[in-house]
Input
Amino acid sequence: MGSQTEGDLAVLMDISPGRNLSAYQGGAMSGEQEERQRRAAHNQLLFRSVNEQIIGMTENFRSDLSDLDLVCECWSPSCTGTIRCRLEDFEQLDRTGNMFIVLPGHEDLGVEDVVDASNGYVVVRKRDLAARIVEQAQDR
Output
């Protein structure tokens, strides 16, 4: 994602009421920020794994499905939110990369960027340490 304009930032703020962008200002990370990024990456990888199992279990009757109910892939281990997603839309998401599908308001702008916000969910991309952790996990 390239540099963001003021308009882009305003859209992000509308997606995430009560959150601000000052949590991420670049530069060196504190130990707390680093741990937060590690936890977020590991939690989101876990939720992605659950969704991949859901997709695998629906393989045999996918032609009869139009929608899927997936778990929110946000950073919070206590999140129990579900996302209804059209199968066609889900299949177009870049699931091999560093992107996750979350409920609106569940994105964490301190460790990830919003890539898309439509259809009742938000697609986020990890950055910095969290991105490296996701990439390493996918290489295994």
In short: Residues 96 and 138 are 8 Å apart (CA to CA). Residues 32-139 form one domain. The chain is about 40% helix and 20% strand.
